[in-house]
Structure formats: C-alpha cells, structure tokens
Write a structure and sequence with these properties.
Layout lengths: L7 H28 L10 H57 L4 H22 L2 E2 L2 E2 L25 E5 L2 E4 L4 H5 L6 H14 L2 H54 L3 H25 L4 H5 L1
Antiparallel strand pairs: 1-2, 3-4
C-alpha cells in the first residue's frame, strides 16, 4: 500500500489556487456590476456569446428590413400623390372634352377649352417627372432626373425599383411609366394634344376619339393607383412586424448580455463572504514553521 505524503508546499499551492479562483469570481462579478454587462468577453459564457451573436445578426437583418420599408414608403407616398394628381387632371380633361363635343361654342370659347387642356398636359408632365431623393418615380432605374421629356417621350430606363422588406418579401416601389402613361405616340400626352387640337378646330369625331383615349388613360392610372395603395399596405404590415420582432430580439439580447443587477449584487456579497472565510481559514491552517517550509 502506497502512502503519499502531503507536504507543506502542496498544501500552500492548493490553498492559493482555491483562493485565486475565488478572487477571480469576485472580480468577474464586480466587473459585471460596474459595466452592466454579463458578457464582457467570450470566455465569460461561450454558449451565451454564440446565442448573442446570432441574435445580433437577426436584429441587424430586421433593422435593415425596417430601413428598406421606410425607404419604400417614401417612394410609394410620392407615387400615390403623383397618381392622384394625374387622375384628377384626367377627369377634368374628360369634362373639358365633353363640353367641346356637346356644346355649341364660339371659336374663342373653344380656344379657351383647348388652352385648359394644354395646361392639364403640362401639369401631368410635371407629375410624370416627380422624384424621390433625386430619382424619378416613373423613370425605372435611370440615373437621370427625368422620366419624360417635353414632347412626352419616355427617357427613363425600364426596370423595377425593388425593396426587400421582410425575409422572402420583395416589393416594387416605383411605377412603370410607359405602362401607365405611355410614351410618344399613344401616350397620355399625345392624347391630350389631340384633344386640344380637336376642340380648337371643332372636330367632333376627333374629340370623341380623344375622349375614349383619355378615359382609357384614366383607367390605367386608377389601376396603378390602386396597386400603389395595396403595396403600401403590404409595407405597413411589414414595418409593424419588423418593429415587433426588433422589440422581441432586443429583449432577448438584453436578457443574455445585460447584468441582472439585484442578483449580481447578492452574488457579490456571497462571493466576498466566501472569499474572506476561505482566506481566514487558509491563514490559520497554513502557519508553517521554518522546518515545515524547508521540507
């Protein structure tokens, strides 16, 4: 049977190791209290650190979705205003053309109606070049500042402006100018030019044809306006969901990273008492004589 002798050096080494561990625990709790953070370095809690990193990634993605949605809302708000204005002006244009068809007017009265139609055309052209942050909302992906030139010809670049507002949810936030307003011959601008010319000359057949064309233009604008409203509702729902998720993720992250101050304060008291008791016990137990120290 082997008997191992416990030397004074072994006792001192073991006691000092225990005291160092106790002191490190006290220091770590003090740091958590002073910083307010339970995780000050990965070694504090490897599992918690991994979870916190995953939560931060999810929170960053959700925050970006919310930013995308806010930007998309800006585009759609401008589109909503522009399409509403265009629709109102097209309704007015229909009234003016109808007056020209049905009324027995003097030439000066016809010229006045024609002038109003040209003014409406100018107003709609201005709406067609509405911009958001310097980009035309009817211009597709163009790098320019206009979607239509003075002749009513489309000068934008076809393409969709999309925003990802949730995981797997991408929406279009611009309006396709050519499909709503047309371009060149056959555009809403061309139809208004034809209507103004027909009203001025008293061409009833021309006015009737222009009226039919403007009514079709109005329907396309109305459909596009409804689509913008539907997309806005989608984004609003996505923003609400993102805000709820941000709150949930932030709360979970705080539970992991932040210090529970009442609990940490109690732990510190208990750890301090335990350390002082261990220190007192070690000082009494380890009082070596010169001979014991030399062994």
């Amino acid at each position: 049977m082997t008997i191992n002798r416990v030397t004074q050096r072994m006792m001192v080494t073991s006691s000092l190791a225990g005291l160092q561990n106790s002191l490190a625990t006290v220091a770590r709790t003090q740091e958590q209290l002073s910083s307010g953070r339970a995780l000050n370095r990965p070694s504090d809690d490897p599992s918690g650190t991994d979870t916190a990193m995953r939560l931060r990634q999810s929170l960053a993605a959700t925050t970006q979705y919310a930013r995308n949605a806010q930007d998309g809302t800006g585009w759609l708000d401008q589109a909503d205003t522009a399409l509403g204005s265009v629709g109102d002006q097209l309704l007015h244009a229909q009234d003016l053309i109808t007056q020209g068809v049905n009324g027995a007017m003097t030439q000066s009265a016809r010229d006045a109606l024609s002038s109003q139609l040209q003014s409406l055309r100018t107003g709609i052209l201005g709406d067609a070049n509405t911009t958001y942050l310097g980009r035309p909302i009817f211009g597709g992906v163009t790098g320019g500042t206009k979607a239509y030139d003075a002749t009513g010809t489309y000068v934008g670049t076809p393409g969709a402006v999309n925003r990802t507002v949730a995981d797997g949810m991408t929406v279009r936030v611009d309006v396709d100018g050519p499909s709503v307003l047309g371009s060149g011959a056959g555009s809403v601008f061309d139809h208004l030019d034809a209507a103004a010319a027909a009203v001025s000359s008293g061409d009833v057949a021309g006015m009737q044809a222009a009226l039919t064309a403007v009514q079709a233009d109005f329907q396309r604008v109305t459909d596009a306006h409804a689509l913008v409203g539907s997309t806005t509702n989608q984004i609003t729902s996505a923003v609400s969901a993102a805000q709820t998720r941000q709150t949930s993720l932030t709360s979970s992250l705080q539970d992991i990273e932040n210090t529970d101050l009442p609990k940490a304060a109690m732990d510190l008291q208990l750890q301090t008492v335990a350390y002082q008791a261990a220190l007192g016990a070690a000082s009494k137990a380890l009082q070596p004589s010169l001979m014991e120290f030399l062994r």
